[in-house]
Structures are given as C-alpha cells and as structure tokens.
Design goal:
Two copies of one chain form a homodimer.
Chain A (H helix, E strand, L loop, with lengths): L4 H9 L16 E17 L10 H18 L2 E13 L6 H16 L2 E10 L4 E10 L15 E5 L4 H9 L8 H12 L8 H7 L3 E4 L3 H12 L2 E5 L7 H8 L4 H6 L5 E6 L4 H8 L4 E8 L3 E5 L21
Parallel strand pairs in A: 2-3, 7-10
Antiparallel strand pairs in A: 1-4, 2-4, 5-8, 5-9, 6-8, 7-9
C-alpha cells in the first residue's frame, strides 16, 4: 500500500472517478457540465467530534458522503458528483486508506454518484474528511429553509432519536430490552441513511425543507427563524421507533430524543391541500405530519391535551467553533 | 466576538456571500446556475504543513483561496464562486476568526469571486482550511495536463524559486545582499499571487497547461507523464528574479530553486506558430519560452552548451499522505 499521495490517488481513488469531467484525477480540476441549476453542499467531519477514532474507516468514508447526500435529499436534489478532501493523520497507518476508498466506492455505487475530484494532505491532528456534493434538482425550484407559509403542514420522514440511543448503547449508558434493537440503533448512530428516496417528493410538494442533523427541535427553530414564522409541533405525533418508545416510557428525557441530532431525516412543510398527495408519493416510506406553521416565532411543542409544554431548551449538538 | 457557529456564520461570513444562489448562508446548500461548463477545483491547507502557526490569520485565509485561484488560472478559467470549509482549533482564540473573514473578504473582492457557502467545525488538531473554487472557462476548451503535442513550445509565467528563498530567509538560513529583496521574497512565500491575469492567454493559446505549485521540475514531469511525451527544458532560459540569480551564483543548488515549490506560476505548452501571439497577449506580463515538447518521457534539463545535465532528483515538496 503506497504512502505517496500521487500513488494513493492513482491506485485507490482514480478507479472511482469514472466520469469524463473527472479527467481520471490526473488533472488539477474537474470540468462539469450543468444543464440549468446545480445544488451544491459541503460538510466536513472531524475525528473526535463527528466520529470516533476506532470507527471502522470504511464507515467514516460513508458517513462523510452520506451527511452531504442528506443535505441534497433535503433540497429535493438527485446526487450527481462529489469532491473528496481527505486529511490523513501522520499517526494512522496508511494501509487504512484502502479501506477508506473501498467504503467510499461502495457508497458511490449505491447512491449513483460520481467522484469528480478532490485533494489529500497529511496532518499532525485528527482525521478530517470534507466532501462537496453536487445534485440536480428534481423540481423547478430548490426549497429553502425560508419558504414555509402560514397554515402549512409540518412533515418529518422516518423516526427520530434512534442515533442518540445508539450513542447511549456504545457509551454503555443504556441497553434496549430487545437485543435485536441493539445493532439497529448502533447502526443509525454510526451511519446515516440519507432519505434520497424522498427527494423527488420533497421537490414536488415541499414549500420549506431541510434535513434534520442537529436535532428536530433545534433544526425546526432554524426553519421557523429563516421563514419568519412559528412551527407548532404535536409531541404525540412525533414518529418514534419501537425502542425509542420504550426508552421514552422509562425516562423523562423526551427532549433529548428530539434535540441530540444525527437523525438525517427530512423536515418539510407543505400546503394542507397536498396532504393526500404527500402520503401517496411516499409510496409506503414513513412520512408523518407532526404539526403546522403559524404566525409567530420559534417552535411550540404541544402535548396530547393540546397544551403548550416546554421540553428542555433545544440546542442540538451544534459543533462549537473556537473555544 | 461570538464563539457560536451560527453567530460566526451570520456575522462574519454571511456578509461575504452576496450572490443570490448563496442564500445568505442561511440554507444548507447553494444553488448555482451554470451556462455550459464549470471548472471546479479543491485544495486544502493544513497548519504546520502548508502554513506556519504564527502566520497572520488573514494571510492564511488568502493563501487558502489563492492556491485554488492558481489552479483555475492554470486552466484558463475566470474565478466565479467559492465554498469555504474552516476547521478551527479549540486552542486558537475565536476572536481571530474575524481576522480570517476580513482577509478572505479582501481577496474575494480583489479577485471578483463570490462566497457561495461552506461549513465550519472545531478540531483538537491544527487549523485546516479547505476551499472549493469554481471558474468559468475563457475559452471553448479547458486545457488539461495531458494535451501537450510534439514540437510545442514550453512556456512559464513569472519567475521561479522566489518562495523557496523567502522560506530560507524566514528560517534564518539565507539573507539577500539587497535588503529591499527581503520582504518581497518573504511575501512570495507567504502569499501566492495567482496568475489570473494570464488565464485568458492560457485559454486561447495553450495546448497543455497547469499551475506550478510543487516545483517546476516535478510539475513538468507530471505534465510530461500525463501527455505521454518528454519536456526538454533549457536551464539558461528559466526566468529568475534578481535575488534568485544572485543566490544561484553563490550556490550549487540550482535544482532546489526549481523543485521546492510554492511558485504558483503557470506552465503551458503551445504551438510554435503561436509564439508571437503569446508574447503579444502577455501584454507586458512576464512569460518565457523555456523549452519544447518531444517524443520520449520525463523531463530533460539542458545546459547552456546544449548538453543534457542532471539536477538533483526532482521531487517537489509533495505532501506525504499517511506515515
């Protein structure tokens, strides 16, 4: 396994760069042809902050890609291409780069996205993986966080809080009563499953939309703020997996399930007239109406009796910059 | 000065993101409209590898942008937009982020390029700055490293080796006899001046082209390899600044001037019929014919007597990946 950058690129990453514009990674640039608009997003993950040093290295590559694919899905866009920047620690065996490339290649195939280029460097610090992903909008417009309208339904895909429970299990702080749930929850923590299957639905039906990566409550607050409106969320409607329901029944920390993050679901708003169409377009995938958009600001959480109830302050697990 | 990511983005970076597609950095993505082809490049710089911890932080921001602008210039493209990924050390005062943003903003204005988006994170390791830059080709084609033709002239912009001498001065290993040269050489080490003024010339006249960032000899070897041909370089023609000529006269390390790197000039090949047009298009900017393209492989350096002569093995200062 070569430790030389040129050889690493030639032998491990160039085989993943199959589109003409990638120029086999022998040039300094990629040349991309866009028909109309391109959606572009970039997300970085850092060892010790966004993943653990002993996570399988192939899974780290997949996580770096998938957090970006989740952003594209949240904007109703189809994955097209990606740039990889890999900053590799001096102290980590370079043999592991092959595992990284293998994991990345598996996901590039699985999600139908091409490697267009990138850069590599070494560091005396933690592994740092930055990916820029490009997508083609499924619809005529790319929904932003700021496009919610008064009276819109609020929708969420999938279930929330499972990654948090997976993290608790890994830390040895909790165990599900049902052993079968253990691996499923850990997998949700380790590796997001971006809702690429919901991107076309989002493009067609959403007014405002974003992926939920920093916790439902914090991200809903961001959407509310950007739209200049309030989101009213009914707690009884929030979709939970079976182990999350069990955890909630034996704990008073419902808010933690909803503000910790790493869910990688899509939060969107849509006109109530679209209610049946949204359900039909989901084609069996889980999408749940959890509230509505109203005048005002911030997020209101409402309990089963219809009363506004406070959960602990939503903050998400925002990664602080600086000290 | 806020240490919260959301506030840092809102107060320091959002004011730099003035194009509509950047969505004021409040959305997760940028939406870019491309008419035809876009040239995309991404380069990362790491503290302790590509810059020194005590470099002025505004200059670090500029360097991160300029190494990417150099890639665009080398491909005959006009800067259009950039994504910034800033990974900030826990131990570095967050007040410095304002200086970083100020430096970045000055260069965005100076080079007429828009901030389209980005990401921020914290790290227990060194500062790591990754920029993805987008350019619009000036010409109908984007010259690659692989497009040299037999009989082409080999051209280089500017002068070579000045950044290396600036580095020697900073390390206290050399001093120019002329004090006025001191700051100029240090500036060339600290901050590349990408040859954006030569991009249109490159687009019009170059067959193969690339920017020289890892040393002339190593980068010429890459161009030769990609094109499947040999580059013959005449050492007497290689353009040197006055202090570099003085250094060369008192040293036997001519090869170091040419293989250390950080020159950020443009190396290109062009049909000899274009010779006069290239000189005219340079419009007074320095561009020098230093050799020709021939059958064979690799780089041949030829002395003033017309003899093939070996310099020490060209390696550039390739940044090793892994250990």
């Amino acid at each position: 396994m070569p430790a030389d950058e040129f050889e690493v690129i030639r032998t491990l990453f160039a085989p993943l760069a199959t589109s003409a514009g990638a120029r086999g990674l022998v040039d300094d640039v990629a040349v991309i042809s866009a028909r109309g608009e391109l959606v572009v997003t970039t997300d970085v993950i850092v060892e010790g902050v966004h993943f653990m040093p002993d996570d399988p290295v192939g899974a780290i590559a997949k996580k770096a890609l998938r957090v970006n694919l989740s952003d594209l899905a949240g904007k109703g866009a189809k994955p097209a291409g990606a740039l990889l920047t890999l900053v590799w620690p001096d102290t980590r065996p370079s043999e592991q780069i092959a595992d990284f490339a293998r994991g990345l290649g598996e996901d590039l195939s699985a999600y139908g996205i091409a490697l267009w280029g990138g850069d590599t460097a070494s560091t005396a610090g933690p592994m740092t993986v930055s990916i820029t992903a490009f997508g083609e909008p499924y619809g005529a417009r790319v929904p932003s966080r700021a496009d919610a309208r008064i009276g819109d339904d609020v929708w969420i895909t999938g279930t929330l809080g499972d990654a948090w429970l997976g993290y608790l299990i890994l830390k040895g702080e909790w165990d599900p009563s049902e052993p079968a749930h253990r691996e499923a929850l850990i997998a949700r923590y380790r590796l997001p499953s971006p809702r690429t299957d919901m991107a076309a639905l989002v493009a067609r039906h959403a007014n405002a939309s974003m992926d939920v990566s920093d916790g439902l409550l914090g991200d809903a607050a961001k959407l509310a703020h950007a739209s200049g409106l309030s989101l009213h969320l009914e707690l009884a409607l929030i979709p939970l997996s079976e182990p999350a329901r069990a955890w909630k029944a034996t704990s008073d920390g419902f808010g933690r399930l909803l503000d910790w993050g790493d869910d990688y679901e899509i939060l969107f708003t849509a006109d109530p007239k679209q209610r049946d169409s949204v359900a039909a377009a989901a084609a069996g995938a889980r999408v749940t109406r959890i509230g509505s958009v109203a005048l005002g600001e911030g997020v209101r959480t409402i309990d089963a009796a219809g009363c506004v109830t406070a959960l602990e302050a939503p903050g998400g697990h925002a990664h602080k910059l600086g000290r």
